[in-house]
């Protein structure tokens, strides 16, 4: 019997139940002191007073987890003290001195008013560089751990294949290889190379959450088990094998009629069985309660908890609406106590690894890492933002030259800070209190107690409040307009407002300029009037309002338009593309956005990004992604394409992996051979232009004959290479044969012997060379 087993055997039922659920700061509010919806104040930005000393009243038998822990204090130093005090009280609530797992969010940096903020995950993925997501993970992990936080609920490993879904920006895109590599990079940054940093990352959401019906949040996922196993589970499989992923969060969706939170095939057979996961499964917030109040698969909250634990979930979060009733279903025989013991054991194993279980855990005390200084974090943010900014189109107008042309800046995003932040950022989090207050005070329709209402309730006129909040949290941030003027002081600003093509005001505003920089985009967040974010699906994912018409009107006026699109997902941009001389995608770059955008437009920096998702031309093409099965989708290696008869072009507007630079490249395969259980591909890349630049060389594979229909192309590797003009670099790709594996008709996974063609290019649609090699049979155990 291990030390953990011994400990579990000594715990009574209530103590064990306490270890598998959480508490949130809101649970610590004395409701008797409230006379109505509290208004946010400078002293209490959330409007609520969290009383840590109330914990024994709230959880008399102990508690295992502190959810939303960053909300305890707006000051990081005070937060550190509050968490330490919370731990003292929690340890005293059980006779074993077991500490609490403190959770936070961190995919864009630590969510806290003083958290260092970065571009959103989709913007990080545009770098095609795991070192970039690793930089974000390292910064977030160090800052969180220094405050006493042990677990980050990041990264998101979902594949986002429908751009209507509001959470695309939280993901690393559409492709399992890119998502796996970027996610693993983030986890290594958080956990350290040896996984012993004292803080852990979480892989979420398991599984298929990014391909829900109609792209609606929490809706059903209609995918077969083979696609779930071979495609959507791949980032999780890789993270488990390569970085020892220790915590997984279930998704909200249901698959084949069974919600993920109660799906034994997903959590036991697939995750723990086929993928070899041995860690902790935590519920996404309130997903266990949804078994009772949404899906209605459970007659009572306690039965909901029994369903989830029986299927393989170990922890209910954020609080305890269902697991608090577990005693009832255990005593009546609905749930065996051994199932609870299994969950508690997994909780304690993770806690022991983090030093939260006395006499069980690390033999040596850990040194708490020093949080990065603001200057270091800001420098890192600029590197990340520059690497992920993607030049979508350029007829040669970029880079601009200071004083070289008469330039005007237009567009609603030119003078805004807020628009550059996504959900799970300090800025978006700070918007909850004023939004909740307005709803609770009946200034808007909806209920602050119901997430769909909270996320979708419109709050007219709240944008200035949100903008002021962003500027207060990030006084160092500058607008795109101000950053451009810092480089080119003669640039003019035209606040055009709502205008249409042919408007005399358009002609009058730009009559004396040669080039117009139009900065447009959509706002992303949780509450308010955002068009993207968690719970915010759009039926028509376009630039909001009359922004497309504005760009078309400028083009019709005879002006060359440089369009900057601020968005954390693909939008339908064909009309904007046709009216623009150049287009730059700025994927929610955070507080450094203005400076980075201006530097790229004027050639101070190079646009380093490549699209992590496919950009369709039309809504009817959704979902659209590059790795579609042979015989389906927009592309085919041997047959004519089957497209839409009412579209002039059925190909993507911008394909996966697309991105221009201020130079040009050539790349070719120099050799390919099978070596044991790998394929080695030798290649070269040459900068054929006049400026230094960074190539992102992409290696795809196509199985030429397989029992199972395979993708038209499968991304298997990629490499960034910075080259001076006329310089050439040698590249070597070592692709495991297991990377090409799939599930056979008999359920075994492996690779059948035969020809595989490797395709080398600069995007999924820009293939420069290919070579075919015969591979042996590979059977995976």
UniProtKB/TrEMBL annotation:
Catalytic activity as recorded in UniProt: Hydrolysis of terminal, non-reducing beta-D-glucosyl residues with release of beta-D-glucose
Q: Which GO terms describe its molecular function?
A: beta-glucosidase activity
- Tell me the Gene Ontology biological-process terms attached to this UniProt entry: glucan catabolic process
What EC class is this?
Answer: hydrolase
Which InterPro entries does this chain map to? Cellulose_Degrad_GH3 (IPR051915), Fn3-like (IPR026891), GH (IPR017853), Glyco_hydro_3_AS (IPR019800), Glyco_hydro_3_C (IPR002772), Glyco_hydro_3_C_sf (IPR036881), Glyco_hydro_3_N (IPR001764), Glyco_hydro_3_N_sf (IPR036962)
The EC number of this protein is 3.2.1.21
Assigned keywords, A-Z: Glycosidase, Hydrolase, Signal
Q: Name one Pfam family in it.
A: Fn3-like
What domain of life does the UniProt record list for this protein's source? Bacteria
Q: Which residues form the Fibronectin type III-like domain?
A: 695-764
Family that this chain belongs to: Belongs to the glycosyl hydrolase 3 family.
Q: What is this protein called?
A: beta-glucosidase
């Amino acid at each position: 019997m291990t030390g953990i087993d011994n400990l579990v055997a000594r715990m009574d039922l209530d103590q064990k139940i306490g270890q598998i659920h959480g508490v949130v700061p809101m649970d610590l509010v004395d409701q008797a002191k409230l006379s109505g919806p509290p208004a946010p104040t400078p002293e209490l930005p959330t409007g609520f007073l969290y009383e840590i000393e109330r914990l024994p009243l709230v959880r008399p038998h102990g508690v295992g987890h502190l959810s939303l822990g960053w909300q305890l204090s707006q000051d990081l130093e005070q937060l550190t003290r509050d968490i330490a005090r919370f731990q003292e009280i929690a340890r005293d609530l059980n006779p074993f001195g077991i500490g609490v797992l403190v959770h936070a969010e961190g995919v864009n940096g630590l969510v806290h008013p003083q958290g260092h903020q970065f571009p959103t995950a989709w913007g990080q993925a545009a770098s095609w560089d795991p070192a970039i997501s690793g930089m974000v993970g390292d910064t977030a992990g160090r800052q969180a751990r220094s405050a006493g936080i042990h677990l980050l609920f990041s990264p998101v490993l979902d594949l986002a294949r429908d751009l209507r879904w509001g959470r695309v920006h939280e993901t690393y895109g559409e492709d399992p290889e890119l998502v796996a590599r970027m996610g693993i990079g983030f986890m290594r940054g958080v956990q350290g190379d040896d996984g012993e940093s004292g803080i852990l990352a979480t892989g979420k959401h398991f599984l298929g959450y990014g391909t829900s019906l109609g792209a609606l949040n929490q809706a059903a996922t209609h995918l077969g088990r083979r696609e779930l196993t071979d495609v959507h589970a791949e980032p999780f499989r890789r993270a488990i094998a390569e970085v020892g992923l220790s915590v997984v969060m279930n998704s909200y969706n249901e698959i084949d009629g069974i919600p993920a939170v109660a799906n034994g095939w997903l959590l036991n057979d697939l995750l723990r069985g086929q993928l070899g996961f041995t860690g902790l499964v935590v519920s996404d917030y309130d997903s266990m309660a949804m078994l009772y109040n949404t899906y209605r698969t459970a007659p009572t909250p306690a039965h909901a908890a029994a369903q989830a634990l029986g299927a393989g979930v170990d922890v209910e979060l954020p609080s305890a609406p269902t697991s608090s009733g577990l005693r009832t279903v255990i005593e009546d025989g609905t749930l065996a106590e051994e199932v609870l013991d299994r969950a508690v054991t997994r909780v304690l194993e993770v806690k022991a690894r983090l030093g939260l279980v006395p006499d069980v855990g690390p033999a040596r005390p850990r040194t708490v890492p020093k949080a990065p200084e603001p200057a270091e974090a800001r420098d890192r943010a600029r590197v990340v933002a520059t690497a992920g900014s993607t030049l979508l189109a350029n007829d040669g107008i970029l880079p601009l030259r200071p004083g070289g042309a008469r330039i005007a800046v237009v567009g609603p995003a030119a003078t805004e800070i807020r628009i550059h932040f996504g959900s799970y950022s300090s800025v978006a989090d700070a918007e909850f209190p004023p939004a909740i207050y307005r709803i609770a005070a009946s200034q808007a329709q909806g209920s602050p107690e119901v997430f769909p209402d909270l996320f979708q309730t419109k709050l007219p006129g709240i944008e200035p409040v949100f903008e002021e909040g962003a500027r207060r949290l990030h006084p160092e941030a500058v607008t795109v307009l101000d950053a451009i003027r810092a480089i080119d002081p003669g640039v003019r600003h035209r606040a055009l407002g709502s205008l249409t093509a042919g408007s005399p005001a358009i002609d009058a505003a730009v009559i004396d300029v040669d080039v117009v920089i139009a900065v447009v985009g959509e706002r992303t967040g949780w509450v308010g009037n955002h068009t993207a974010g968690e719970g915010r699906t759009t039926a028509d994912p376009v630039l909001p309002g009359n922004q497309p018409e504005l760009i078309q009107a400028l083009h019709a006026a005879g002006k060359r338009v440089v369009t900057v699109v601020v968005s954390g997902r693909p939008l339908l941009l064909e009309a904007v593309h046709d009216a623009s001389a150049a287009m730059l995608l700025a994927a929610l770059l955070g507080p450094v956005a203005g400076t980075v955008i201006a530097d790229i437009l004027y050639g101070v920096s190079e646009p380093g990004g490549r699209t992590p998702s496919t950009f369709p031309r039309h809504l009817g093409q959704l979902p659209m992604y590059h790795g579609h099965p042979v015989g389906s989708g927009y592309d085919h290696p041997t047959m004519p394409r089957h497209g839409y008869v009412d579209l002039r072009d059925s190909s993507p507007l911008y394909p996966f992996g697309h991105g221009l630079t201020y130079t040009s490249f050539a790349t070719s395969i120099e050799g390919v051979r099978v070596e044991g259980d790998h394929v080695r591909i030798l290649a070269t890349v040459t900068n054929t232009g006049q400026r230094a630049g960074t190539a992102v060389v992409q290696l795809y594979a196509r199985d030429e004959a397989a029992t199972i229909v395979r993708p038209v192309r499968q991304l298997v590797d990629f490499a960034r290479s910075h080259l001076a003009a006329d310089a050439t670099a040698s590249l070597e790709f070592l692709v495991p044969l297991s990377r090409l594996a799939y599930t056979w008709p008999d359920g075994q996974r492996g690779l059948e012997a035969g020809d595989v063609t490797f395709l080398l290019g600069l995007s999924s649609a820009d293939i420069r060379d290919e070579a075919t090699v015969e591979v042996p049979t590979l059977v995976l155990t």
